[in-house]
Automatic annotation (TrEMBL):
UniProt source species: Brevibacillus fluminis
Residue runs in coiled coils: none
Keyword Cell inner membrane annotated: no
Keyword terms, alphabetized: Membrane, Transmembrane, Transmembrane helix
Presence of the UniProt keyword Transferase in the record: no
UniProt-listed InterPro entries: DUF2306_membrane (IPR018750)
Designated name of the protein: DUF2306 domain-containing protein
Residue ranges crossing the lipid bilayer per the database entry: 7-27, 47-67, 88-105, 117-135, 156-177, 183-204
Length: 213
């Protein structure tokens, strides 16, 4: 079950990364479709700067998704400790960059201030969980470190779940896009917290603090 879950997680990550790069760098590099939904902004967007920040945000969100996934298999931890450590630092750096770029874009969030607040809250939660994982490994608490990494890694799928929930609400239930997006943002925060805890209780293998894959 654990091996199948890990394989499924990698497959979902690969598909989403491919979709993100195609959508944002090939199909619609000016983000015309996405920006078209930002109709209630109270401040103008400096488009060249916003697009550059968004591109950096996307690239490092994908880096975090890949580097985080690569550090879970026990064979990486046991046989490639230097890679595991370097990759861990890469993950942390990616999370910080994603948080900083998200912080810049938050005031321009679709749906206005209510979603700006949510994105800032999400950034604090994600960074806090990542810091907790660092603190635990510094204390040699491997099992606790791995658990906090599971919680942190879940938030790599934030964008995917936001757009999935938004799509279902808007296209499936005919709700206004901004309302759907707001439900997507808040629903994702709640859902990822729950999913992480479900994974820890069903998939996580805690003797010696390892996740088998």
């Amino acid at each position: 079950m654990r091996k199948h879950f890990y394989t499924l997680m990698l497959a979902v990550a690969a598909v989403f990364i491919g979709y993100s790069f195609y959508t944002n760098f090939i199909h619609d590099p000016q983000a015309t479709a996405f920006l078209g939904h930002k109709v209630t902004l109270k401040r103008p967007i400096n488009l060249p700067v916003w697009l550059t920040v968004m591109e950096v945000h996307i690239v490092f969100a994908c880096v975090a998704m890949v580097s985080g996934a690569l550090n879970f298999p026990s064979r990486i931890v046991q046989n490639h400790r230097k890679f595991h450590k370097f990759n861990g630092y890469l993950y942390v750096a990616s999370v910080v960059i994603v948080d900083l770029t998200s912080g810049y874009m938050a005031p321009f969030s679709t749906g206005g201030k209510i979603n700006s607040v949510a994105f800032n809250l999400l950034n604090v939660i994600w960074l806090g969980m990542t810091i907790a994982a660092i603190v635990q490994i510094k204390r040699k608490q491997i099992d606790k470190h791995r658990k906090w990494m599971v919680r942190s890694y879940a938030f790599c799928y934030t964008n995917m779940f936001i757009h999935l929930i938004t799509f279902v609400c808007h296209n499936g239930f005919g709700m206004a896009y901004e309302t759907s997006y707001t439900i997507g943002v808040y629903g994702t925060i709640l859902l990822l917290l729950v999913i992480a805890e479900i994974v820890l209780r069903t998939v996580y293998w805690h003797p010696k603090g390892r996740l088998r894959a």
